[in-house]
Design a protein that fits this description.
There is one protein chain. This protein is an alpha/beta fold. It has 11 helices and 13 strands. The strands form 4 sheets. The protein has a 5-stranded mixed beta sheet with strand order 1-7-6-4-5, sandwiched between helices. A 4-stranded mixed beta sheet has the order 8-13-12-11, with helices on both faces. Strands 2-3 form a two-stranded antiparallel sheet. Helix 3 packs across helix 4 and helix 8 runs parallel beside helix 9. The structure holds coenzyme A (COA). Coenzyme A binds next to helix 2, helix 6, helix 8 and strand 12.
Length: 329
């Protein structure tokens, strides 16, 4: 087994308290609680209020991480934020977070890898720390998907929610504990199966854009589903192989929380029984880049993940992007 170069220290999360239930959605679009639960496993999702900005939610999650790590914001050398919903298109969400956190010694930048953003962040942070230029890197996954969700489109509005999660990457100090492998991959030819057509430089804000609702997420659900199952299987295989471990050795699998059927297919492929798979998609829906760090924090605080646990993290998202990380906690 590979010796880790970096370790993860501390976790944190923020989830808004406002709940949007399946019953609420029944009153908004032609859908049913039964359909949503059967097809997705989702019962409810959290929706941010206006004061719960991306920077605010991320700051709360990062403060929890720093408390566990015994560090101050000034100790942070780098802030990497995986997000598709920055508070502003310019500057990066990571810079707004840096200002809110008071992490004045850090470099700050965003990662545009959609739902895989947090795992892309871990992979990049591992490289930064391994190079010796960074000692403490905060890696954040944060989203306000409710802001780009079309609540007249039943095919997408039942899926998404808001939240933030974070961890800290540091040089490994303790033998075999830390990141054992990372794997990142993408296929840009499939971008238009899950995307936001308008609002960027190609199609800037206009009356037309508002009329055709093209600033919202558009998705070809069935095709995305098939690619997600295939890509997450590939990601599991790659990360496990590179780490030199098998699915049976994994103590906890945290897959991206998009859909219970995708989660079950991923676990089955990796040979990991469902009692070792962490699921919170029923409570939070798909929070994109935030889904894995929120789940990670829940697992660590509940003691499901403890010192020495072998953890497999695997994600898939728009791009398409997919990624995986094996970590000895
Ligand atoms: N409520 C009720 N019916 C709905 C519905 C809803 N919220 N959304 C779609 N339907 C209808 C469709 O209109 C379609 O009706 P039709 O047969 O009369 O045309 C029917 O349900 C089946 O639609 P389909 O899209 O084939 O369903 P599905 O079994 O593929 O489930 C998803 C839809 C979105 C749940 C599923 O495709 C999915 O989870 N895809 C992946 C999405 C994802 O995870 N995206 C993020 C990746 S990070």
């Amino acid at each position: 087994m590979k010796r880790p170069i970096v370790q993860l220290v501390g976790t944190g999360r923020y989830t808004p308290s406002k709940i949007l239930s399946n019953q609420d959605l029944e009153r908004m679009v032609e859908t049913s609680d039964e359909w949503i639960r059967e097809r997705t496993g989702i019962r409810e999702r959290r929706i941010s209020e206006s004061h719960e900005t991306l920077a605010y939610m991320s700051k709360v999650a990062c403060e929890q991480v720093l408390e566990v790590a015994g560090l101050t914001p000034q100790d942070v050398d780098a802030i990497l934020v995986g997000t598709a919903t920055p508070d502003r298109l310019l500057p990066a969400a990571a810079c707004d977070l840096q200002a809110e956190l008071g992490a004045k010694n850090a470099a700050a930048f965003d990662l545009g890898a959609a739902c895989s953003g947090f795992l892309y962040g871990l992979s990049i942070a591992e490289g930064l720390v391994a190079s010796g230029s960074v000692q403490n890197a905060l890696v954040v996954g944060a989203e306000r998907l409710s802001r780009i969700t079309d609540y007249t489109d039943r095919a997408t509005c039942v899926l998404f929610g808001d939240g933030a999660g974070a961890t800290l990457v540091q040089p490994a100090v303790d033998g075999d504990r830390g990141i054992l492998s990372t794997y990142i991959k993408s296929d840009g030819t499939l971008a238009e199966l899950l995307y936001r057509p308008g609002g960027g430089a190609l199609c800037p804000p206009s009356e037309q854009l508002l009329n055709d609702r093209s600033y919202f997420i558009k998705m070809a659900g069935r095709e995305v589903f098939r690619s997600a199952v295939r890509s997450m299987a590939d990601a599991c295989d790659q990360a496990l192989q590179q780490a030199g471990v098998s699915g049976e050795q994994v103590d906890v699998l945290i897959p991206h929380q998009a859909n219970i059927r995708i989660i079950e297919a991923t676990a089955k492929h990796a040979g990991i029984p469902m009692d070792k798979v962490y699921v919170n998609v029923d409570r939070f829906g798909n929070t994109s880049a935030a889904s894995i760090p929120i789940a990670l924090d829940e697992c660590v605080r509940a003691g499901t993940i403890r010192s020495g646990s072998l953890v497999l993290l695997v994600a898939f998202g728009a791009g398409f992007t997919w990624a995986s990380v094996v970590v000895r906690w």
